């Protein structure tokens, strides 16, 4: 484990990365012959303008002898030529014209001067005029920085309006630029979640990013584990950043501070609430002074601190009493908004209710526990699990009773804290409560015991209690929904399908529809009844929109995605992942889940690098915060992706994660784990053992009736060279009746028959579907079959296709490593052959390579017999991987 020493990362001397375009533009504008005499860098405070300007100056003048720096300041705005006081004689004449003339004369003594003017918006009138005059002479190269949004002296703005300097806007760092900068500073791999947090926290400001990163390194929050930098605690604001922000706050008047404190405590304030507390003129002034931002957030207008770190600093300065008083004021305003919402259909009622509950729980007002329960349940439906837990715990601690406890327990359970959730629910007895609340308590407790705790028998005992206590049939559908879900994840998919499809034909309460639909759709996808998945998933998803439900809605997407993948419609699977990914936006746990689904599609498409990286990041986010069944299947996919990519250590680690998460609550996913083990053994070179694990996975899938998974596992064995499953795969292909299973069976049959032509056909089918890694293995098998038959030209064509696809996928499978040998050409022969494949004539190739046409003729004379071809067209088709 690695860590920084305190102070190892400071606020100066950072590399300039991911600013290539801006750097090049500024450097070009400051170079003779560009048509400009320098550049003006315009951007928000802390965006990196000064660092960029200094980097360009260093590139122009590495020794620094011709470079001088000038700084505009607020205090110097009233003093003529104050910014140039260090460069000009102290006895400069007082008359403006004379002062300018003396300044020009003094600067001329510097020769080929490069002048960097930082914060040029603060220049006094005479300094600004001097800069304007210098920009038109061409005797000085100027690099100016200006803060966006500030008033700029007319003379300074004239420098670019007259075309003398090039105006270059400098935007905030993108997420990719943040990643480049942080990776460069830390000199190592950084966890993707850490990058996301740093990017959000710094809001694109390199200055803020430096301060936050320096603090995280200094206090041990950021540590290196296994070669990867990870966060071990919340981000904090460094003293340096606090000082910078404090100096800005000192320029605000008391009314602006009052407004900023209110917005900072709230973090985000609806416009309607803000104008109830402050007049618009004050709001406008605070925004112009850079204290707050007013933005249109979808259909709403909201105000927030101008930078997240400003909000942090201001909240830190507020005392407890002041913060609670502000929360009380905000609660009263939002109570009025909620009253107005009740009379306006389609308003933002849910959001306002949640905000009201937040302000109420942090104020000295008497809490409305019923409202807080409703807000917590809404937060749960929106998958804001931390918020749901906070609100529900507040209500429970103040006597909220069983209604509050069920929301709290569900929030805990979905965060993977099953035993905590069970402790909350076990404190209550069902007797004496409303039957609807008893049904909810029992369904939730049973689900938590089964999914989060892995205690299947205890879960079923709770359902028995519910049936003995509740008599209303509609409420009992919650218990039925749990039975369907338990059957599915226990591996009894036929029971799940039969019970689930029957239950969905009758009336059910909303949450029961969601659970039943999720499990039934998953079971249908795995049994291979692909056409039936869509309607069931749509029914469940619609129900999730009409009731308070948790993150199980995203597992509906998993069923849809698996059905489309196993059928062979990869484009539809990608669209499904994109749809659920959009639903999950802004919810970290849900984003991790839907990203894992998209990574599964990438795995089947053969995008192994992206799949492996995404699955690794998703598991980091999921491992300790989501039910173990989901962790198990995603870990299994990760093992497959990493092993197929040749990363043995990562694949072993992923298998270990999957094994740790295994249990009765994830029995249906055991075949996926066994396929993961098969790939690990393949990566180790133990192909026979890999085939054994793949067949074992297929046998487990057959026992549970998951025919699509059985076919997938059998084909994994085929990819490892097992051709003895042809009859079994033919039966499954007929049963499943879909393009992908049919191509898998063709692959197996052709491999058993050593039929190179049909193996090539299997590869083409896989390519048409989009399964490029499968196509690579089939092509590699085809090359071996052609070699066995002595068909040299066909062998090389298939081998070329296999190698091309394997490189594209990043695939290192037994088939491609053994059967996809490179073409037997020298480097020069390969170069000539490639140009022939591109359609070039011998003369064009000779001119391009700087040799004679006769030399090219000689190369082709040697290439043709090596590859078993006789014409240029045959050579071109061979290089393209065609037979």
From TrEMBL:
Gene Ontology molecular function: any one: DNA binding
Signal peptide positions on this chain: none
One GO process term, biological-process aspect: regulation of DNA-templated transcription
The keyword Methyltransferase is annotated on this UniProt entry: no
Pfam families tied to this protein: AAA_22, GerE
Gene3D superfamilies found in the cross-reference section: P-loop containing nucleotide triphosphate hydrolases, Winged helix-like DNA-binding domain superfamily/Winged helix DNA-binding domain
Keywords: DNA-binding, Transcription, Transcription regulation
Domain (HTH luxR-type) ranges: 818-883
InterPro entries: AAA+_ATPase (IPR003593), AAA_22 (IPR049945), P-loop_NTPase (IPR027417), Sig_transdc_resp-reg_C-effctor (IPR016032), Tscrpt_reg_LuxR_C (IPR000792), WH-like_DNA-bd_sf (IPR036388)
UniProt keyword annotation of Cell inner membrane present: no
PANTHER family to which the protein is assigned, alphabetical: DNA-BINDING TRANSCRIPTIONAL ACTIVATOR DEVR_DOSR
Protein's name according to its UniProt entry: LuxR family transcriptional regulator
Organism whose genome encodes this protein: Mycolicibacterium arabiense
Lineage: Bacteria, Bacillati, Actinomycetota, Actinomycetes, Mycobacteriales
């Amino acid at each position: 484990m690695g860590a920084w020493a305190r102070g190892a990362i400071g606020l100066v001397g950072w590399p300039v990365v991911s600013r290539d375009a801006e750097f090049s533009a500024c450097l070009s504008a400051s170079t003779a012959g560009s048509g400009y005499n320098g550049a003006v860098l315009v951007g928000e405070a802390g965006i990196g303008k000064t660092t960029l300007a200094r980097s360009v100056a260093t590139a122009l003048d590495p020794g620094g002898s011709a470079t001088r720096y000038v700084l505009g300041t607020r205090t110097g705005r009233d003093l003529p030529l104050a910014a140039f006081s260090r460069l000009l004689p102290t006895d400069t004449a007082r008359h403006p014209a004379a002062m300018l003339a003396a300044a020009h004369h003094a600067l001329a003594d510097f020769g080929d001067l490069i002048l960097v003017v930082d914060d040029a918006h603060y220049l006094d009138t005479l300094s600004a005029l001097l800069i304007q005059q210098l920009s038109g002479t061409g005797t000085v190269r100027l690099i100016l920085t200006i803060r966006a949004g500030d008033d700029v002296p007319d003379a300074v703005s004239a420098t670019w309006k007259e075309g003398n300097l090039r105006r270059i806007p400098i935007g905030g760092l993108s997420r990719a630029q943040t990643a480049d900068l942080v990776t460069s500073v830390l000199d190592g791999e950084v966890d993707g979640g850490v990058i996301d947090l740093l990017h959000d926290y710094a809001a694109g400001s390199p200055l803020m990013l430096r301060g936050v990163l320096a603090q995280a390194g200094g206090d041990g929050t950021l540590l290196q584990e296994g070669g990867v930098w990870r966060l071990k605690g919340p981000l904090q604001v460094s003293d340096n950043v606090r000082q910078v922000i404090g100096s800005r706050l000192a320029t605000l008047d008391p009314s602006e501070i009052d407004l900023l404190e209110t917005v900072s405590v709230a973090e985000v304030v609806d416009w309607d609430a803000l104008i109830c507390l402050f007049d618009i003129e004050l709001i406008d002034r605070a925004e112009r002074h850079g204290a707050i931002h007013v933005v249109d957030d979808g259909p709403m207008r909201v105000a927030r601190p101008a930078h997240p770190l400003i909000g942090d600093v201001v909240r830190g300065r507020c005392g407890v009493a002041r913060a609670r008083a502000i929360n009380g004021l905000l609660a009263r305003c939002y109570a009025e908004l909620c009253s107005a919402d009740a009379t306006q259909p389609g308003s933002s009622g849910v959001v306002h209710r949640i905000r009201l509950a937040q302000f109420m729980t942090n104020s000295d007002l008497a809490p409305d526990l019923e409202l807080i329960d409703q807000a917590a349940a809404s937060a749960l439906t929106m998958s804001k699990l931390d918020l749901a837990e906070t609100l529900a715990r507040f209500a429970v601690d103040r006597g909220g009773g069983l209604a509050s406890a069920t929301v709290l327990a569900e929030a805990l359970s979905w965060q993977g804290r099953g035993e905590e959730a069970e402790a909350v629910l076990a404190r209550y007895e069902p007797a004496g409560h409303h039957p609807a609340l008893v049904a909810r308590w029992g369904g939730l407790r049973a689900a938590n015991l089964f999914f989060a705790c892995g205690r299947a028998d205890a879960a079923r005992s709770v359902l028995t209690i519910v049936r003995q206590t509740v008599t209303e049939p509609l409420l009992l559908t919650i218990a039925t929904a749990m039975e369907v879900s338990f059957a599915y994840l226990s591996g009894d998919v036929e029971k799940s399908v039969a019970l689930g499809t029957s239950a969905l034909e009758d009336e059910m309460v909303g949450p029961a529809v969601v659970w039943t639909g999720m499990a039934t759709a998953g079971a249908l996808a795995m049994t291979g009844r692909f056409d039936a998945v869509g309607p069931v998933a749509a029914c469940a998803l619609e129900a999730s929109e009409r009731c308070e439900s948790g993150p199980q809605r995203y597992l509906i997407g998993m069923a849809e995605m698996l059905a489309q993948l196993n059928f062979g419609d990869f484009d539809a699977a990608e669209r499904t992942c994109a749809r659920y990914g959009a639903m999950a936006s802004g919810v970290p746990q849900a984003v991790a889940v839907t990203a894992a689904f998209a990574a599964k599609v990438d795995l089947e498409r053969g995008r192994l690098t992206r799949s492996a990286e995404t699955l690794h990041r998703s598991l980091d986010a999921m491992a300790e915060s989501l039910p173990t069944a989901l962790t198990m299947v995603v870990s299994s996919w990760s093992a497959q992706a990493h092993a197929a990519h040749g990363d043995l250590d990562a694949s072993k680690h992923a298998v270990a994660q999957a094994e740790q998460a295994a249990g009765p609550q994830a029995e249906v996913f055991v075949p996926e784990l066994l396929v993961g083990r098969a790939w690990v053994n393949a990566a180790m070179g133990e192909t026979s053992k890999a085939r054994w694990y793949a067949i074992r996975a297929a046998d487990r899938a057959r026992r549970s009736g998951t025919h699509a998974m059985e076919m997938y596992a059998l084909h994994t064995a085929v990819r490892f060279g097992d051709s003895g499953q042809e009859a079994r795969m033919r039966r499954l292909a007929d049963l499943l009746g879909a393009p992908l299973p049919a191509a898998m069976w063709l692959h197996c049959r052709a491999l058993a028959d050593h039929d190179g032509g049909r193996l090539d056909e299997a590869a083409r089918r896989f390519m048409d579907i989009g399964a490029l890694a499968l196509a690579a293995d089939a092509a590699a098998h085809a090359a071996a079959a052609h070699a066995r038959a002595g068909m040299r030209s066909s062998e090389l064509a298939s081998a070329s296709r296999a190698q091309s696809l394997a490189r594209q996928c990043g695939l290192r499978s037994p088939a491609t490593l053994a059967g996809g040998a490179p073409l037997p050409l020298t480097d020069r022969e390969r170069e000539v052959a490639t140009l022939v494949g591109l359609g070039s004539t011998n003369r064009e190739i000779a001119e391009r390579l700087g040799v004679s046409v006769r030399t090219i003729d000689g190369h082709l004379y040697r290439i043709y017999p090596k590859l078993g071809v006789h014409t240029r067209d045959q050579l071109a088709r061979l290089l393209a991987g065609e037979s």
